[in-house]
Amino acid sequence: MNSSCPPAISALIAEAGSSQSLAIAGALGPFQVPIVSYFSTCACLSDRAKYPTFFRTIPSDYFQAKALAALVKHFGWQWIGAIQSDNDYGLNGILAFTEEVKKLGVCIAFVGKIKRTYGMDKILEVVEMIKQSTVKVILAFVPESDFYPLMKEVVKQNITGIQWIGSEAWITASQPSTHEIYQAFGGALGFVVNKMAIPNLRQFLTGINPYEDPSDAFVKDFWETIVGCRPVLPGEDAVTDSTNEICTGYETLLNSKDLFFNVTQLRVSYNVYKAVYAVAHALHQLVFCQSVRERSVRPCLNTSEIQPKEVTDHLQRVNVINQFGDNVFFDKNGDPPASYDLINWQLKNGQVQHVTVGHFSSAADKELSIQEERIVWRKGKM
């Protein structure tokens, strides 16, 4: 499009889901606006002909499928079942996995489809499919919200003795990680993107305060949810419909035990961090025309002159080592290098824990490494 007006945005960091990203990438593609996603994994988004301005900081499911196939090969499983979410994520994930395991002579006995909007009748159909099959290993390529209703029904009907394999969308999710669900899903294995503790992030989060930023409505809502009282700022009426009491003004987040402040297990958040810095590096090079590593820089472009296509071109050339030693770059399809941790569900002190028992890297000489002696199996080794 030709316009004398400067573009409203230079890049967009979004979206969490693959289906949403497909819609946004299709809509913004004609405007050449680059999109950097932190959690959309569908391999279909690597199609540069359809999505020429799409980038992501989480690996494509093409690599997760290769990792899952390598896991199946490692343990010699030849007869397995599969469950997928009835959306782009599940459909493309199972398709990529099927293509990989077929090369290994592995047979897939059934593929059940589920979705959080499905009624109980369809959930029971999948449960019956599991009960009627002789498979002892099942891959579930589904998001947590789609899978949880089925998990509860599997527990309710006391279906045990199955080795579950999970995709990254549920294997470390908090909702199903309970003692109740562990009865049927204990010992589950699955891959997740690497975690990272970001320095100073907890300090920043615990420093959020509605009294210091009174114009931010989000901060006030956040404070009321976490602290449990309603902050009343100068000039405001203390009368409210809220069920929470009025804050005294002395509350603090410093000692909060809410999981929101646990910054030691950041996986998705680290991908957001990498997305922001990738865009920042691209913009920096556009504005200063020199590498960020060079000390002397000179402005060469006004920010209002930046065009989305220029940002896309510079994102394709981003290649930096961040403060954690990770090499941040995108291949010709807009994908990052793939690296996963292998997670095992274990019960320790009555709590379900996600224990790292292996690693997969698309760039490593040996793609898959597993510490079998650390794995807790569902019922012995399948």
UniProtKB/TrEMBL annotation:
Molecular function GO terms recorded:
G protein-coupled receptor activity
| Sequence ranges assigned to domain Receptor ligand binding region in this UniProt record | 9-346
**Entry membrane topology:** Multi-pass membrane protein
- Main location, first listed in the record: membrane
Sorted alphabetically, the keyword list is:
Cell membrane, G-protein coupled receptor, Glycoprotein, Membrane, Receptor, Signal, Transducer, Transmembrane, Transmembrane helix
Subcellular location(s) per record: Cell membrane
Recorded GO CC terms: plasma membrane
Keyword Transmembrane helix part of the UniProt annotation: yes
Name it.
Receptor ligand binding region domain-containing protein
**UniProt organism field:** Pogonophryne albipinna
